Here is the input.
Amino acid sequence: MKQSVLFTKILREAPKDEQSINSQLLIRGGFIYKNSAGIYSFLPLGLRVIQKIGLIIREEMNAIGGQEMFMTALHDKRYLQATGRWGVDVIFKVAEEKKEPTFNLSWTHEEIVAEIAAKYISSYKDLPFSIYQIQTKFRNEPRAKSGLLRGREFLMKDLYSFHASEADLFKYYNLAAESYKKIFKRCGLDSVYTLAAGGDFTLNNTHEFQVLCDAGEDTIYVCEKCGYYENKEITKLQDGAKCPKCGGPVKEKKSIEVGNIFPLGTKYSEAFNLKFSDEKGKKKYVVMGSYGIGLGRVMATIVEKFYDEKGIIWPKEVAPFQVHLIRIGDDPKTIKVAEKIYEDGQKRGMEVLYDDRDKSAGEKFAEADLIGIPTRIVVSERTLEKDSVEIKERNKKEAKLVKIKEIHVR
Ligand code: ATP
Ligand code: MG
Here is the structure.
């Protein structure tokens, strides 16, 4: 893409009420636009990142048998009334003018999906299976001050699994946990598997995937000896206390919850009469699990982990483009060479953002550092004197001159 046609521009300043690193950098770089507190639009650069994260998630969900579908955002109140969740405080309710609310905006889909599954499932032969979606959730978060970490409207991948027994559920639960680890790793994030509470979803304990980070709103206890993690919400542990697994000392850390998996049991199948007949023809309730990841929260976490005083440093797999090609000056030979590199890149399916604008080198470099594309290639009269371009990785200090005929960028 040519940067001259990109409709967004780099902003010198972020809005004053935006405190978090992720929102400041993402807004200034033209990745997102803040419409209201906790409500953000994804601009072309930001959408590319979200789509990359979505692609990684889709690949890994498909790999554990997830079938993708897409459910509604507007839910009749009978769904939440069936499970006693109509009163949950973060739910946005929708009413006709001067009437009591009769709908809510999607905040999670256990009820919706249990009713749909009940229509198709009748035998143990139909089980197990799992479905997922990437869809917008709405939650009236009281503390929407952390940019994409905590939106009031946000994209979530939610997967739901359906089983004939608890044992089968936990087999899949562990598989999903492995898959989650891979997803975060591919996004450049080291996550830790943490025992947590069930919230409004289940009475059981659940597991969260936490990324250690000072910008996080969660507090977890970490045993550095055996790698056991527990969320402060459920624990009686304190800093320096003994690990319940190995007796080693535990430490308190700030962290970001990027994913959460829930063994639901039969709560939702009971509410929606989701049953199957077993091998002996006996009717039983289907055992369910649910598994969430916030795409925007993952994107924000990546920014909170990978930035410096100049801007964002995207890991390759989620970067909006792989290469930032920067042309300095407008002498005809420089233009010709830069265009050629750009077009060759396009032909080879390389993702290049080509800065073809008339701006000073200083401005272009500062903007490129803010946007944070992994590889920068500079073409100028000076580099062409040596038949070369200058290549620099965003996460390295030194640049190197490379002969034009030798550049093959992945
Ligand atoms: P939190 O405790 O941070 O409020 P939660 O435990 O209520 O989150 P879940 O219902 O477990 O959230 O949602 C599954 C996943 O969706 C979370 O692990 C997180 O990645 C993401 N998520 C939840 N709430 C938000 C939000 N307000 N903004 C962005 N992502 C969110
Ligand atoms: Mg959670």
Q: What stands out?
A: The domain at 7-189+198-211+256-308 is CATH 3.30.930.10 (BirA Bifunctional Protein; domain 2). The chain has a mean pLDDT of 96. The chain is about 30% helix and 30% strand.
